[in-house]
Design goal:
Blueprint lengths: L11 H11 L6 H5 L6 H17 L2 H25 L4 H14 L2 H4 L7 H16 L4 H6 L7 H14 L7 H21 L2 H21 L4 H25 L9 H13 L3
């Protein structure tokens, strides 16, 4: 048993010490054997759970989930500290230095009177620091691990900054219709590879239209998915009231219940 003082309130040094003890020889057998790779998914899951707390506007849940995200940061930093490469203090130092460098309009002589000017300055300084030598490199720097819609929109935004992209919503809509037609042609051909490619192009065009509409494609799809679940729940409840299992209903019945579910939202 490891003796650790119980307090009314802990701080970051306590969290670092707890992680150190958990990873020690007398600590937790599970924590001790973890690697960056083995807990990579945990970091992603905790981040998504924090995002959900934000969407729910639940400060109590957000407080808890931010703690879980911080735990993952401490965990990964501890693994590196044991390997002698860097520690949590280095992580903090680096991010502070980054914030100072990337806000020359706050900590320097530059001027930025709008959020657009702030974002332009941020991107310019970031590219300078990273030594980005071409517009293509800025696209390649968008992480492949991003959700597909998020990555597509960020790539499109950076391409548009280089003057490469559809000029407005009308052009984006026309491109979407073109891609839909090309998908139909691929489907008619029966070639799986062509269908996949054209489906991808159609989704990419949808993201482009969302960007021109000033929408976040990832958020828009998330909202629609939640809306679908809500309507499905209502439709299934209507089926139960009729004494029918939704899966056993015919198309007309399902269509009727779906329309009633939609109307109940008004």
């Amino acid at each position: 048993m490891i003796d650790f003082p119980r307090k009314e309130r802990y701080d970051i040094s306590d969290l670092r010490r707890v992680m150190e003890l958990l990873r020690s020889e007398d600590g937790c057998p599970w924590d001790r054997v973890q690697t960056h790779e083995s807990i990579r998914r945990d970091l992603l899951e905790e981040t998504y759970e924090a995002a959900e707390a934000i969407d729910l506007r639940d400060p109590v849940l957000l407080r808890e989930e931010l703690g879980d995200v911080l735990l993952q940061v401490i965990f990964h930093a501890r693994i590196e500290e044991e390997a002698g490469r860097f520690d949590f203090d280095d992580v903090v130092s680096d991010v502070c230095a980054k914030l100072l460098i990337r806000h020359p309009f706050v900590f320097g002589e530059e001027q930025a009177g709008s959020t657009d000017e702030v974002l332009q300055s941020w991107e310019r300084v970031k590219n300078q620091v990273k030594g980005t030598g071409s517009h293509t490199e800025t696209l390649e720097l968008v992480p492949k691990t991003y959700p597909a819609l998020m990555r597509a929109q960020k790539v499109q935004k950076r391409a548009a900054a280089a003057g490469f992209g559809l000029k407005d919503c009308a052009a984006a809509r026309e491109d979407l219709l073109t891609e839909l037609q090309e998908l139909e042609e691929a489907r008619a051909s029966g070639e799986d590879a062509a269908i996949r490619d054209e489906m991808g192009d159609l989704l990419f065009a949808c993201v482009n239209l969302a960007r021109h509409l000033g929408l976040d494609a990832e958020e828009a799809l998330t909202f629609s998915t939640e809306k679908f679940i809500t309507r499905f729940r209502r439709a299934e409840a209507l089926a139960r009231e009729a004494g029918i299992d939704l899966a056993q209903a015919d198309d007309d019945q399902r269509r009727q219940w779906w329309q009633l579910a939609k109307q109940s939202e008004k």
